[in-house]
Amino acid sequence: MTFDPDAAAPAESGLFGLPFSPEDSRVVVVPVPFEATTSYGGGTSRGPAAMLEASRQIDLYDHETGEPYRRGIAMLPIPAEVEEWGASAKRLAGPVIEAGGPGDDPALRKAVGAVNALSEKMNGWVYAETSRWLDAGRMPVVLGGDHSVPFGAIRAWAERHPGLGILHLDAHADLRAAFEGFTWSHASIFHNVMTRIPEVGKLVQVGLRDLGRSEKQMIDASGGRIVPFYDSDLAAEKERGTGWAELADRIVAALPPTVYLSWDIDGLDPTLCPSTGTPVPGGLGWNEAIGLLRALIRGNRRIV
User: Is residue 22 a contact partner of residue 30, using CB atoms and an 8 Å limit?
Assistant: First the structure.
């Protein structure tokens, strides 16, 4: 196949306009168009399709890394069944969220049970897809969807890398237990990870600036298994003249050798992503986020 990396991407081309199939690619992007429990803004289920379309506008040569796309990057087809599960779950969850939780209402409690069941189906699907591509020697990358979707992927990676560290960029700690009654809420992803996946050795959270008391208590009671880097503390350090590279090196020092990245877009400054569902003032700039990747390399961490 003739491929010109400087040409405009054909309308029906793959991610970044690349011609690769998943079988030819080192990196396989698993789209998960699922949002059930988003509690303010919405639209994350349309994320994979929007990313695919926008990616075709990006040039392929990278100043720092050259042409890594040559190893192959491909996105799987957007799964209609997962879209359907998410749409059904979102409809069921709406009245529960509006009421602030199910309370003692039998109808709302039934709806919560149905949402939890659909979320479990999604978790199983993500786990199976991630495992399938790991077994094929690929690097699967999950693209949501709301931030509940990576649970199955983290489980699959952690089974293969006991002691796995997670570098979590987010405005929120996501450590709430069954938020609004939903076991698999987007606000509960790391509560579930840390209580249900014992192979995860360390969770390092960066950019936190909106969390509840119970989440702080879980962090404090974790015995160092959860390490927070609060946005206000990072900002105060920068005000005193500490450079971002030094701060990023401190963050990386808290991580074990093997690292999974779980990045929520609202970890970034919301001026960069104003349509995110739960924007919070503050957050990392784009180059600070990329600087964390540089720090991982300096620190000899392996990004899985």
Answer: no
Q: Which helix (H) or strand (E) holds 200?
A: strand 200-208
pLDDT in tens, 124-137: 999 999 999 999 99
Instruction: Enumerate long-range contacts of 275-280, CB under 8 Å, 24 or more apart.
Output: 275/41, 275/43, 276/41, 277/38, 277/39, 277/40, 277/41, 277/42, 277/43, 277/44, 277/146, 278/39, 278/40, 278/41, 278/171, 278/172, 278/210, 279/41, 279/171, 280/171, 280/172, 280/209, 280/210
**Cα 20 to chain centroid, rounded:** 24
Q: What is the pLDDT of residues 248-294, one digit of tens each?
A: 999 999 999 999 999 999 999 999 988 888 899 999 999 999 999 99
Residue with tokens 């890398």: 161
